[in-house]
Amino acid sequence: MTPQRSYRRLGAPRAMLLAGFLGGVCTSRLVAVLRRPRPPTRGGRGFDSRRIVHSASDAILSVDERTRILLANPAAAHMFGTGVGVMKGSALARYIQPPSVVISSPPPDAMLTPLDYFPTGSGRAGRRATDYAVTGIRANGQLFPIEGSISSVAHEGRRVYTVILRDVSERHLVQQKLSRSHDQLRQLSAALQSIREEERTHIARELHDDLGQLLASLRMDLTLLGRIDHLPEASVHLIAGMETNLLTAITSLRRIATNLRPRALDEGGLYFALQGLRDEFVERHGIACTLLADEAELRLDDSASTAVFRIVQEALTNIARHADARSVVLNLYRSNSDLLVTIRDDGRGIRAEDMDKAESLGLVGMRERVWGMRGEITISGDEPPGTRIDIVLPLDGHLA
Ligand SMILES: Nc1ncnc2c1ncn2[C@@H]1O[C@H](COP(=O)(O)OP(=O)(O)OP(=O)(O)O)[C@@H](O)[C@H]1O
Ligand SMILES: [Mg+2]
C-alpha cells in the first residue's frame, strides 16, 4: 500500500530531517508495528523504525485522529517526566496544552484533532517562521515551552500523526536573561547620558558665571589702568597685550562653555539652541545649512530638548567629518503628538557597513536617545545624494 502523505512541518533542522524521514518511511510502519508483534530486523537491508524512534534524542509521539497517543519514545517520556507505558493510550491534552484560541472557543463538536494543537498562525513561532510553539504539561503539572512539528499519513483509511517535540525551556530562560540584561544596559546608558548632561551643565555654568565674571572684571580693571596718565611706553604696550589676551580667553571660555552646554538650551529653548548650532556649523565648516522649524513647535521639556539637540549635534559633527557635503537641511516639525526630525546632506552617503563599525559610538548614542524616548530612527544612504536621517519622537509628556 502506498501511504498518502499530507505534511505540515516545522521545527529545528534536525527535527525536520527526522520528520521528513519518519513521514516518508516510518509512520505507516509504526502503525503496523503497533498492531503486530515486533517483526524481525532484516539483517541490515532495511530500517528498524521502532529502534530509530526509540533511540531518537527528540521526543516523538504517534497520535491517532482522536488525539490518543499510540506510541511515545523514551525521550518523550523523559521530557514529560513519566514513563512510555503511561503515555501510551493517554490523551494528547494530558501532555500538550491546546492553544488558547481553541480553549476559549472550542470546535462545535468539542472534538479536537492533533492538528488543532498546532494551528497555523497561532501560538508563538519558534526559531523558524514555520515552527509551532506550544506549551507542554509535565506529569507533575508543570508547564513548559515546546517547539514542535506535526506530520500525518493515511493508513488503512485512518490518519496517523507523528509529532516531534523539543523542550525549549532553557533557551527561553537564556532569552529572558539576555533581554533583561539588555534592558538593564539600556537603563544604565540612559542614566549615564543624563549624569553626563548634568555635569556638562554644571561645568558650563561654573565656567560662565565664575571664571567669566572674573575675566570680565579683570578686563575692566585693565581698561582703568590704561587710562592712567603718563604711563611709560612699555607699560602701555604691556596693557594692550594683556587686553588682547584677555579677550581671547573670554572668547575661548564662551566657546568651551557653549560646547559643553549651550545656554540657549536652558534660557531660550530648543529652536534658539539649534539656530546657534547651525550658525556655528556654517561658520566653522563652510557648509550651507538650512534650519526649517517653527519656534512654537519646539517648546519641549528639558529631556526632550536635550535629546533632540544632541542628536542634531552628532549628525552635524558626522557630516563635517565624513560626508564631504556642500549643504545640509534640518527639518523639524510636529505631526499630531510626534516630532518629526529629518536631517539630510548631499555628501557621499553613509554605507551599510558604516553603521556597524564596532569602534563608532555616535550613531549608537543617537539611536539610544531616540529609543529612550520610545521613538524610531531610520538612517539611510541609499537615496542619493547623501545621507538621510529620519526620526519620529513621541512627545507625550514632553511639551514645555
Ligand atoms: N553623514 C554621513 N555621511 C557619510 N558617512 C557617514 C555620515 N554619518 C556617519 N557616517 C559614517 O558612519 C560611521 C559611523 O558614524 P558614528 O557617528 O557612529 O561614528 P564616528 O563618527 O566614526 O565616531 P564617533 O564615535 O566619534 O561618533 C562613520 O565612521 C562614517 O563612516
Ligand atoms: Mg560620529
Describe the structure in brief.
The chain is of the alpha+beta class and 400 residues long.
Verbal overview:
The protein is of the alpha+beta class and 400 residues long. The chain folds into three domains: 5-167, PAS domain (Beta-Lactamase, 2-Layer Sandwich), CATH 3.30.450; 182-261; 265-400, 2-Layer Sandwich (Heat Shock Protein 90), CATH 3.30.565.10. It is 46% helix and 19% strand. The protein contains eleven helices and eleven strands. It has helices at residues 13-35, 49-55, 74-80, 84-87, 100-104, 169-226, 233-260, 263-267, 270-285, 302-323, 362-372, and strands spanning 5-8, 59-63, 69-72, 132-137, 143-155, 158-167, 288-292, 327-335, 338-345, 376-380, 388-394. The strands form two sheets. Strands 1, 2, 3, 4, 5 and 6 form a six-stranded antiparallel beta sheet that branches. The chain has a five-stranded mixed beta sheet with strand order 7-8-9-11-10, covered by helices on one side. A hairpin with a 5-residue loop joins strand 4 (132-137) and strand 5. Helix 6 runs antiparallel to helix 7 (233-260), helix 9 runs parallel beside helix 10 and helix 10 (302-323) packs antiparallel against helix 11 (362-372). The radius of gyration is 36 Å and the shape is elongated. The site of adenosine-5'-triphosphate has 16 residues, from helix 10 and helix 11.
